[in-house]
Amino acid sequence: MKPAVGLAVGRGTGAELAAVFERTLHRISALHGVGVEIVKSPRTYHSYVSLREEVGDLGGIRALTEEDARHYERFCRERARLGTTAVFRTAVNAQSLYLVRQRLQAVKVEPIAAGDESLLLVRDEAQGFYTGENRHTPGVVTRTMEFSRETTGKVLDFAVRRAWRQWPDGGPARVVMAYKFHLLDGALDDWVGELGRGLGVEVRLFQPDTVNRNLITHGLGDRTVIVAGNEWADIMHVVLLDRFGGRRQENRCTENVHLHPELGELVEYQTVHGSADDLAGKDTVNPVATLRAAAAIAERHAGCPGAVGAVEAALAAAEQRGVRTPDLGGRHSTTAVVDAVLEALTARASAGPLPIGGPRAAGGPRPVAVLPDRP
């Protein structure tokens, strides 16, 4: 039976990137002699721009936002029920997306390497200001959100388990949480202490500005886990990628793991960049993050070992030829970049199998020092 992969497409450049994803995943799976079924959601989800263009009034926006959220939630639940372990999603309107993340208890996972040291960023997407509901009165929007001990416990438990998977020889050296806990009457502080003791790890809870100062002053420490609320991690994700990983947002894909028990930790892969509505239909959107997402899904969920390394080598070959989209200073179309990468991928496969793991990605990490355990 062929493994099934879910596909959810948003407006803007979503259709173009979905085509890149399907083409790439099918090419990789064919090179490995395996079959993959791609199951596409029947609904095309709104971006913020398309939502504003389609309905300008408040009631219409709220109704379509909720419709998109309910539909995508059902799609994820159905895929998980049928045994699917991965979904690729292009960018959609954030308000719909965070309703789903709250209901399905999602976390975003980003390993960041810096020389011989590494950081695991686990972003709590399931609670806090980004989640919740709006109530409108004339001239006022009141947003109601919550934090819970149960959700915090699930996020911390996942972060520690994921850290042991990433560093099996020693697990996490330190676990740091970046939240505005001073606003929560001491509740989060109490929960974290109890939860850490239950997990057998020390968890240090910091204000976000303290985490920033420590990162600026001391850099990363090897095997550091940062668990962070959206309010900090959304902004700092791109900064951490640039400063410690030497990576651009436009080229990155990342994974969201759904911790609701009915989802079986279904993993949703996405590009880090947004919907880029202004580029829709121009064949100039950067496809690199989508190519990387297809490789990750192929290797981790579709029985294609070495796919990530092979695609990284093919990306490097295209880059050496100067084949890149305009946002990276090039003059090539989306299609031309994908053609170049898939040609290099096919040529490499013809030359012989790539060792599992493959070469280190281009644009290597920068050396940094240690993040101390201090308040």
Automatic annotation (TrEMBL):
Superkingdom is Bacteria
Q: Which intervals of the chain are annotated as region Disordered? A: 356-375
Keyword Thylakoid included in the entry's annotation? no
Q: Which residues form the Isopropylmalate dehydrogenase-like domain?
A: 4-341
Family matches, as InterPro entries: IsoPropMal-DH-like_dom, Isopropylmalate_DH
Q: Tell me which UniProt keywords the record has, alphabetically.
A: Amino-acid biosynthesis, Branched-chain amino acid biosynthesis, Leucine biosynthesis, Magnesium, Metal-binding, NAD, Oxidoreductase
Query: Which residues does UniProt assign to the signal peptide?
Result: none
- One Pfam family it belongs to: Iso_dh
Protein name (record): Isopropylmalate dehydrogenase-like domain-containing protein
Question: What is the species of this protein?
Answer: Kitasatospora putterlickiae
Taxonomic lineage of this organism?
Bacteria, Bacillati, Actinomycetota, Actinomycetes, Kitasatosporales
